[in-house]
Structure formats: C-alpha cells, structure tokens
Amino acid sequence: MSTAPNSSPPLTKVKRSNLTASRLRAALLFLAPMLIVLAAVAGWPLIRTIYLAFTDANLTDLSSAQFIGFENFYAVYDGETYGLLVDPEWWNAVWNTVKFSLISVSLETIFGMAVALVLHASFKGRGIVRAAVLIPWGIPTIVSAKMWGWMLHDQLGIINGMLMSVGLIHEPIAWTANPDTAMWSVIMVDVWKTTPFMALLILAGLQMLPSDIYEAAKVDGVHPVKVFFKITLPLIRPALMVAIVFRALDALRIFDLIYVLTSSSTNTMSMSVYARQQLVDFQEVGYGSAAATLLFLIIALFTAVTLTAGKVKLSEEA
Amino acid sequence: MADVNLRNAIKEFGKTRIIHGVDLDIKDGEFVVFVGPSGCGKSTLLRLIAGLEDITAGELYIDGELVNQKSPKERQIAMVFQSYALYPHMNVYENMAFGLELSGGSKEEVKQKVMEAARILELEPLLERKPKQLSGGQRQRVAIGRAIVRNPKVFLFDEPLSNLDAALRVQMRIEIAKLHKDMQATMVYVTHDQVEAMTLADRIVVLNAGRVEQVGSPLELYHKPRNKFVAGFIGSPKMNFLEGTVVDASATSITVQLIDGASVCANVDGSKAEVGQKVSLGIRPEHLSVTESGGFSGHVDVIEELGESHFLYVRTQSGEVITVQGTGDAKAKRGSTCQLAVPSDLAHVFDENGLAFSRHLKDLAAEKLAAQA
User: Fold this and answer.
1) pTM listed for this prediction
2) B85 at the A interface (CB within 8 A)?
3) Span A194-233, pLDDT tens digits
4) B98 and A230 in contact by Cβ < 8 A?
5) Percent of chain B, pLDDT > 70?
6) Buried-exposed string A156-166: b where 16+ CB fall within 10 A, e elsewhere
7) Closest partner CB to B89 (pick from A212, A223, A235)
8) Which residue has the higher pLDDT, B353 or A14?
C-alpha cells in the first residue's frame, strides 16, 4: 500500500477515481428513489407552507393570496401590535406543548425504564409479557384516544364510576373539560400509550450490556441500587438519549391525541392544534402556515441543539 | 489468605446435576488449578466457590467458616474473568477503586492501595485510560489489579488467559506465577490449557463430567495417572492406548499381548491382574522410540516436522494409529515400516474399568530426569 503509489502514482490515481466515480454513481442510483419521494412528500409541502406563511392566503380562495412579508408574524397598525409573536393564544399553545412534552417524556422515561428493567430480568412467560406490554403502542392513536375519551366521560365514563364506587370522589369529574384536569388527562393517556415504546428502546439498550460486569460488581459487593446508578445508567445513556430525543420530537408535534380527547380547548391546545384551528376552522391559511412554520423552526432548533450536544459528548468520550 | 474446603459439594441446574459431590481441600497459599474438557464443570465449581452460584447441597468453608449462604463480598474472594469484565465507562484507576470506594474506604487509603497494585502490575502510565484503549494483556492486568486491591482471602481465576494471543499468554502466565510467589495467596485457577495447569499449579484437580478424577502435583498426574481419563488428558500429544490381553503378571510387571501379536512388558504392580484379562496399554508419544528390531511394527502414515521435534503417526497391524514423538528431524520415511520399542519402566496398564495398575515409582525426581533424557 505504501510503496505502490510511489512507483506509479498517476496510474493508481486514475484507477481509484474511476472506481470511486462508479461507486458514487451506484450510491446515487440507489438513493434517488428515496430522495425523489422525500422531496415530493416532505420537501414540497414544507416549502409551500413556509411560502404561505408570508402571504394573506385564505381557504376560500387560495389563488388571490398576496405576499405580505412578516405581517403574519409581527405587524404594527396604529400603535397596536398584531401577528403570531404577540398572540397570547399562540404562546398559550407553545406553553401547553412544552409542558406536555416535558412532563409526558419524563414520566415515560421513568416508567419505561422500570418496565424495561422488569422485562430484562428472566422469568417464566417473559415473551408473552413483552408482547403484552407493547399492546398500547400497537393501537392506533385515534382508537386509543377515543377509547380513553369514553372511559373518561363525565357522565358515562368507567373511571368516574370506579372512583365513585370506592368513594374517592363524590360527584363525577369532567376529566377532559375541567381546566384543572384536562392537561393531566392528556398526559396520562400519552404516558399509557407511549411507555411501551420507551421500554422497548431502553430494553434494547439493556440487552447490549455485557453480563460479566454485573458479576464483577457482585464480587465487588456493590449494592444493586449503586449498580443501577453507577453502572447500568451510565452505560445505557446513549440508548436512553436516543429514546428521549425521539419521544421529545414526537411530543412537540402532538396533535391527534389532544384533538380527539379535548378538541380545540385552550386548556390543552398544542402548537399543532393551534395551527389546524387557524388553517381549517378560521380558514386563515397564511396565519396558520406561519404557526406551522414556527413549529417547524422550534423542532428544528431543538433537534440541532440535541444533536450538537450529543456530538460534543461523543467526541469527549472517544 | 485462607484454606478452602469443599465437602460433598453438589450443584444442580433444574434437574440436571452438574457437580456430583466434590470433596476438596485447598491449603492456605496453595495454587490449585482445575482442568478438564469443556463442560466438565470446572467453571461451575469455581463459581460455587465465588458465590456467583448457589451450592445445591454440601458445604463450602473458607478460612474454616461455612460460607454457603454468604455473598461473594462476605466470602472475601476476588475473581478474574476470562472476558476481563472491566467497567467500560470507567478508567483504569476507577475500575480498580470502584469496589473499595463503595465499601467505605477513605480516599487516601483507596488511592494508596490502587497505586500499590498499579506499581506491581506496571499499570501506572495507564491509569487514566479507558478499557477500550488498552490491549488484551493490559486489560487482564487491570482485572488482576482490581482483584489485588481488595486484599482477598482467595483469588479465583476463570480462564484468564484464554482471550489472549499465544505470546501474551506465555508472558501473563509467568506474571501470574510471579504474583503468586510474591503474594503467597491462595489461588484457584480454571483452565482447559494443560500447559498453564502444569506450569502454574502446586496441585492440579482433573475434573470430568462433574466429578474429580484425580488431585495431585503436576508430575504426579503425569507419571502416575490414576485412570485412563487422567492419563489421556494430561500430556500433549495424548497418551497412546493399545488394546491387549494379560499373558503374564507378577508383583513387579505385567506382560501384555497386543492384538497384532507383539508382547510388551510393563513394570507395574500386576499382583491383582489375571492372565487372560483384557487391558489397555498406555504409552506416551515421547516415550516411544524407533528401533532396528524388537517391540512392535507399524506403517508410517504421516510425519509432522516441528524443527526441534517431530511426530510420526504410525498405523499398527491391527489398524490402531499411534503417535510417536522424537527429537530433531524424523529419520523414518512416510509409507515405510518401522519398529517401535517400548521401555518397560515408562509403560502404563489400565484395566477394563480404566483404572491404572500402580507403577513402581519411588523417586519422581529421577523419573523426571529419565523423561527429559
């Protein structure tokens, strides 16, 4: 390898670049179908949404849309401010989404870890339990949201029925309509549905760990709790981070669960629900697109920050 | 430092019995090696001593104390694993200090112990490194260091050199032997490599299918194997076994007639042998020699030249293939016929149950010289 290029450098160079070129061509050929599909189903709608965010488009007549610059985001008329950035409802939706994401992802991580640790232990019928745990994740969100909607119903719901029969509450609670409980109902259902996914990702991380170090820890006489915090947790951190980022990205664009459970209630309205309301209910395509564009920017920013932080961590370890 | 005593130790996994009642006394400061074919239970026996597996029945004493129900830590043992089992996210120092720090040693005390172990094992320049930045030999040294700092009563080694390449294995073997000399600690060592067993052990325990076949010093096992299994397992290449019948027996010798008619005399105690009894004649490859006449004849099938020695694979007239080891270059030609002589003093005889007729060896040291000659 070290002497060959010296004896005949031009020849090797030409040969190599030919090979590289043909490899590049093959790579492009294989990538092309996916790139085209992505451009059509993700790229085009994204560009169009961003474009619409700078117009006054209305659902009644999209063709008469006029370019209005940043007015959907921020505008001043006669000393009064207008636009998304000063809309309290938008900021309510942002706050709701952040609160929902933080709480639900935290709970899912904790419960997911607990479930994963149980499933990682060997016991009889583990295969069946593993499959059973995944059921909530397998049900389509609309179906499970509807199911929970009925269970949480203020008049006919089984949750109220059970709580009243054991005497914990004296009158039915409107779980999804009451401002005090609406967000918590949404979070509970999301945790119920998504914990299995977290558990599965964490379990995959656990199964990558070598078993011998646990025996070494046993010989060292390390307490099981210490083993978890000093050995297991640091070692599955990469897998855990991936799982958390995945879930956080998912949670930030939450729509279906909230929309089905609580419709467009301001108590639980997320950024996605807000954008839909503007776009469809109020027919303000331009304004709604501006909200969708901001949502996109927030998620993009979050992703960029996490990936950069992750890379810094990785390079430190290497 | 302590004695280890096993009394009728039994281990069952579900309904399968892996260890069938082992009795063993390991003395303080002794280096004992468990050898046996894979699946013989040697690692399981070690894990029973470590406390990583529960003993199904029987008793285990360390330092005179019954420890069946005690955790590995309470038994005060340290273990070195085949796969090193280092904590991948900790550096060398932290790996060695981890157990100590958690058991409440002061920072200074821990540091002193770790630095001492690092000095003994020449790990000082590597203390900041993570395990993945170390070579296999260095990793195993860290694992040994982690054992040393705990100042255990008993060191347990589970095939510690199996993952290393041949050259490193020899080097580490010497380091472990030196460590044992310096520390005078009780060590129990599992291996399937009989060279490791022969070179390291004060005593070797040969295990087969969960039973102890023989316990003894390396040369005792080599010269006086109690049965056919030990005779075949200790020594490389393997001992040759030839089927035959007793034609003459006395208190000092047995004459065996082989299937192809040749008679061989072995100087063993034949007072319990009967004429006409079926026996196996055992001869180590290094004890056979090619002669002009006498002994029995065979056909040279394959020759392997190793430089300092050579192996002949000789097919006897009855179809048995026997291995002959000679020094230097082979003089025989492939495909030729040769005569093999068996020295009566070095032949072994086993009865139908595989038990050896005892050999008259008063002086093992003299025998050692004879074997070397």
Assistant:
1) 0.79
2) yes
3) 999 999 999 999 998 988 999 999 998 889 999 999 999 9
4) yes
5) 96
6) ebebbeeeeee
7) A235
8) B353
Concatenated DSSP letters of B332-358 = S-TT-EEEEE--GGG-EEE-TTSBBPP
pLDDT at B362: 55
Q: What residues in A contact B146, CB-CB < 8 Å? A: 216, 220
The answer to whether the Cβ–Cβ distance between B74 and A221 falls below 8 Å is: yes
Q: Are A255 and A270 in contact (CB under 8 A)?
A: yes
Give the distance between the most distant pair of CA atoms in chain A: 92
pLDDT value at A165 more than 80: yes
Burial of A307 from C-beta contacts in 10 A (0-12 / 13-18 / 19+): exposed
Q: Does A235 touch chain B (CB under 8 A)?
A: yes
**What's the whole-number mean pLDDT along residues A43-55?**
94
Task: Tell me if A219 and B74 make a contact (CB, 8 A cut-off).
Answer: no
d(CA A104, CA B160): 47
Return the DSSP state at B329: S
Supply the ipTM of this predicted assembly: 0.81
Domains recognised in chain A with CATH numbers? 4-77 (no CATH), 90-283 (1.10.3720.10)
pLDDT digits (tens, 9 = 90+) for B23-75: 999 999 999 999 999 889 999 999 999 999 999 999 999 999 999 999 998 99
Q: Counting every residue, how long is chain B? A: 373
Burial per residue of B276-304, b for 16 or more beta-carbon CB atoms within 10 angstroms, e otherwise = ebebbbbbbbbbbebeeeebbebebeebe
How many angstroms separate the Cα of A1 from the Cα of each of A7, A22, B181?
Answer: 11, 22, 48
Question: DSSP labels for A96-113?
Answer: HHHHHHHHHHHHHHHHHH
Beta-carbon contacts of residue B251 (< 8 Å; ≥ 6 apart): B269, B270, B271
Among B50, B52, B85, the residue with its CB nearest the CB of A213 is: B85
pLDDT score for B294: 72
Shortest distance between the Cα of A220 and any Cα of chain B, in A, equals 5
* Whether B43 contacts B159, CB under 8 Å: yes
Asked whether the beta carbons of residue B85 and residue A215 sit closer than 8 angstroms, the reply is: yes
Kindly list the structural domains of chain B, giving each domain's residue range(s) and its CATH number in brackets, ordered by start. Answer: 4-229 (3.40.50.300), 239-372 (2.40.50.100)
* Burial profile A218-251: b = 16 or more Cβ within 10 angstroms, e = fewer: bbbbbeeeebeebbbeebbeebbebbbbebbeeb
What's the whole-number mean pLDDT along residues B252-262?
A: 88
Instruction: Give yes or no for residue A14 having a pLDDT over 80.
Output: no
Residue environment code for B52-61, b if the CB has 16+ CB neighbours within 10 A, otherwise e:
bbebeebebb
Q: Which two tokens stand for residue A159?
A: 């949750």
Best of A122, A218, A219 to disrupt the B interface by mutation (most B CBs within 10 Å)? A219
- Mean pLDDT in chain B? 90
Q: Which residue has the tokens 């909607």?
A: A149
CB B298 within 8 A of CB B331: no
* pLDDT for residue A8 is more than 50: no
